[in-house]
Amino acid sequence: MGTNCCRRRQTSLFYEQNGYWIAPQLIDEARLERLRAHMERVFAGQFETGRAPFDGYWTPEQGNGLRKTDNSHWADLELRALATDPVIGEIAALLTGADAIRLWHDQLLFKPGNPDRRAGGNVGWHQDYAYWQCAAEPTLITAWVAFDDVNPDNGCMQVVPRSHRWGLLNVNDFFEQDMEKQRQGMDIPEDASFEPVPMAMKAGQVSFHHALAIHGSGPNTTSRPRRSLAVHLTTGDTRYRAGTRGDGHMNVGLLGGRDGDLFAGEAFPELFRRN
Ligand SMILES: O=C(O)CCC(=O)C(=O)O
């Protein structure tokens, strides 16, 4: 019990200081197999709930680039169970210190193998909060679930430790392919250093990152796909702030809310609540 408590404290301290944390394997191989199969079904347009996900950021012309489908939990029950997994919610609560955790949205991510590097497939340096300023504070956290082993060869995510303390920066573009140009133009604080670390993981492991942590990913130079679900979460006290660029986010409409309303209700299912 004492050891467990000490481990929990070390985990939340690491997250507080670095803005990310990598969990051990949470998803076993049998569940991973189901998740990969359900991912394929969603991409093939088979929606077991009868409701389509949001596919507004992807067209087949993007070819070898990253395929990103938002809100797969609208379409598929296996993916929904993962996006609302209480274990992921409990870890997110531990890391953020929140009493409750809700789903904001999910992103099903497929980075095809691209050994000849003909097409991009990079995810440009960004902070998630740049897109989520419809939340009054950056009280959001992402759980990124690896469906395959990930490492620098297949374009695993890279995160910049401690960058969650730098505030919102000037360079934030998920779709930018020239990450070096982005880095050169980044207004990082004078006393800080930009030293990304690869979030290499085994399939079934889950990484967590703060909404202000700078992250991105390089190309998948292998011949196999890199598959994952990014589960974007809010703390239970996260409120809507009207009038920002975040109003363009597809989930803001679901709240149907007024400035100051809690991001809560059916569209934002609760993963975890502390008793
Ligand atoms: O999968 C990637 O490479 C990037 C995902 C991402 O930006 C996120 O989960 O916040």
UniProtKB/TrEMBL annotation:
Assigned keywords, A-Z: Dioxygenase, Oxidoreductase
InterPro entries referenced in this protein's UniProt entry, alphabetically: Phytyl_CoA_dOase-like
Protein name (Swiss-Prot/TrEMBL): Phytanoyl-CoA dioxygenase family protein
Source species, domain of life: Bacteria
Statement: the UniProt record of this protein carries the keyword Transport: no
Pfam families referenced in this protein's UniProt entry, alphabetically: PhyH
Species whose genome carries this gene: Cohnella rhizosphaerae
Signal peptide feature range: none
